[in-house]
Design a protein that fits this description.
This protein is of the alpha+beta class. Helix 6 packs parallel to helix 11 and helix 9 runs antiparallel to helix 10. It has twelve helices and six strands. The strands form two sheets. Strands 2-3-5-6 form a four-stranded antiparallel β-sheet, covered by helices on one side. The protein has a two-stranded parallel sheet with strand order 1-4.
Length: 571
């Protein structure tokens, strides 16, 4: 049975004082031998001696181990990999500002209280975000395990009672006790000294993994906030498209009635009526699709909010216009992405964690130096003369004390290259993560550039489509006037109304694309994760539930998590 000390330093173990008679007995044992201890020495004195002796030995060895291994760590020290970053963005437009800006609550630029409320609700209730927070707790516990390996790895208190029967025909058993009981109680410890830094590299790796899990949480939060905002814009866009479709149904219904009146009066043929009805029914067919889109978008938003799919009108407040995006956006400079974007930080930290694993693997090339020891009490019963006619009551006598102590070295010399190949495996994994980091930086820049150009061009598209819709509306008015007066056939009305429906829907989609593109800009810039600063990663009710199952100590307490430093120019 092994008892793990975690981060407890044996040098800091406090031993309670004992009566002076026990101390004198221990001193006599140390100075003159165990035969000088009073034969009726109490078990507490004997055990006190053993614990103190082992504690003092390991305390001395702790200092020695730290002196010997404090500055030796095989393997590379992590250096941040280089990454290609441009000095400026491609788009040179007055609407794109390169000044530093605070993107921590970027969604407030839409001045929409409903959107602000939805983001706050999603931050508190989203389930994938909670999973990311729980992974941080897992990484904290893993770090504790890694730290614990620096200290004595094996520690066990043991007790054993056995009855033993020896065969009369066993080798060398003629003078042995044929049957006896064996009683044992003791404490064993073994400590592999971190001479080559294997365990300290493991701590480095676990610490980097903890920071990477925090960066992953931030990345999930960035995506969550942008998804909530984009889904909200999508709902408002569907609502606006539905409103436009219903208005066109009304206009086309009026046109159908005009055609029916003229057909009844014999002014036109039935062709005008059937064409008007076909256009009306085609426009009406889009309404179920838009209604389905609204429902599906609300369902998606419900999941983001951490609630079952339901009608969200109580949260949305009924149909409203599409959020209006500002015409300008401040994006800073490309180099700021290296600190602001959580996925870039995560990629860097994953590489750092793997770099330490190279040192862990390299340490296996060198001899493992360990110190082990054991002390305890052992006595027999019914063992006869060969066992000093001992009984269970003699277990706690001083002459039942037993111990051993000594160093050992293990060096896997003939490993057929397995250790070196493992070092190579860890090295190539590190190189993969370095390339992944560099690729993440490139993709981040691409996402920003894509979002910027989309934001600028969707504004231009919306402007052109707005003018097109105004002209299309005028065309419908003129064609209807001419049709009533008999100056043109119904085909002109049909064409103008069909084009109006098409352009109005395109305009509405474009008006939704403008804020959606701006949302993509802020997501690509890595904004939004800052809202978790000063707050815990998991809600209080989950911590209460976990504490009711398991003793988490102080791991569930909110710890200060340092935000990445702000980018500063080198000049």
């Amino acid at each position: 049975m092994v008892t793990h000390l975690g981060t407890v330093n044996l040098m800091q173990i406090n031993i309670n004082p004992v009566p002076r008679t026990y101390v004198r007995g221990i001193e006599a044992f140390l100075l003159q031998g165990s035969q000088n201890i009073h034969p009726r020495a109490h078990a507490r004195g004997v055990l006190w001696y053993g614990v103190n002796a082992m504690a003092r030995i390991f305390s001395v060895l702790s200092v020695l181990a730290l002196l010997l291994s404090g500055c030796i760590k095989v393997g590379p020290d992590f250096v941040k990999p280089p990454a290609q970053v441009e000095e400026k963005w491609i788009e040179k437009d007055p609407k794109i500002k390169s000044e530093p800006a605070d993107h921590s609550s970027w969604w407030t630029v839409f001045n929409d209280p409903v959107l602000n409320s939805l983001v706050e609700t999603a931050y508190k209730q989203n389930l994938p975000l909670r999973i990311a927070g729980l992974r941080i707790l897992e990484a904290r516990a893993q770090l504790g395990i890694a730290v614990g390996r620096i200290y004595p790895q094996l520690q066990q208190a043991s007790g054993d009672i056995s009855g033993d029967q020896i065969s009369d025909n066993a080798p060398n058993a003629a003078a042995a006790n044929k049957f006896f009981y064996d009683f044992q109680a003791g404490f064993d410890a073994a400590w592999e000294l971190d001479f080559w830094g294997r365990f300290r590299r493991g701590v480095e790796s676990a610490d980097a993994n903890l920071s990477a899990s925090i960066a992953d949480y931030d990345d999930v939060l960035v995506s969550l906030v942008s998804d909530v905002a984009a889904t909200y814009v999508q709902i408002r866009t569907f609502e606006e498209r539905l409103k436009v479709a219903l208005e066109n149904v009304r206009v086309q219904g009026d046109s159908l009635r005009i055609a029916e009146v003229r057909f009844s009066g014999g002014a036109v043929t039935e062709l005008d009526v059937t064409q008007a009805k076909a256009l009306l029914r085609d426009t009406q067919s889009t309404i179920p699709v838009l209604q389905s889109g609204i429902r599906q978008a609300q369902n998606a938003l419900s999941i983001l909010l951490g609630i079952p799919p339901r009608d969200l009108q109580d949260l949305l407040g009924g149909p409203k216009t599409i959020p209006t995006a500002p015409t300008e956006v401040t994006v800073g400079i490309p180099a700021e992405l290296l600190r602001r974007r959580p996925d870039i930080r995560r990629a860097e930290l994953q590489a750092a964690a793997q770099s330490a694993q190279i040192g862990v693997a390299k340490a296996d090339l060198f001899p493992a130096i360990s110190i082990s020891g054991s002390f305890g009490l052992e006595s027999s019963a019914k063992g006869g003369r060969q066992s000093n006619r001992a009984n269970f009551s003699d277990l706690f006598e001083s002459n039942s004390f037993t111990y051993f102590f000594g160093p050992s070295v293990q060096w896997p010399i003939l490993n057929y290259g397995r250790i070196r190949d493992n070092v190579r495996v860890q090295d190539v994994r590190f190189q993969e993560l370095v390339v992944n980091y560099q690729n993440t930086v490139l993709r981040a820049a691409q996402e920003v550039e894509d979002a910027i150009v989309a934001f600028l061009r969707t504004q231009e598209q919306a402007k052109f489509l707005s003018e097109s819709v105004e002209s299309a509306k005028r065309s419908v008015e003129l064609s209807l006037i001419q049709y009533r007066e008999g100056a043109t056939d119904y085909q002109r009305v049909l064409d103008s109304q069909g084009f109006l429906v098409q352009q109005q829907d395109r305009l509405t989609l474009s008006l939704g694309d403008v804020p959606t593109s701006l949302i993509a800009v802020y997501k690509a810039l890595g904004g939004g994760w800052q809202i978790r600063e000063g707050k815990d990663f998991i809600p209080e009710e989950i911590k209460t539930e976990m504490n009711s199952r398991t003793d988490w100590g102080n791991l569930l307490q909110l710890e200060e998590v340092k935000s990445p430093p702000k980018w500063e120019p080198d000049f």
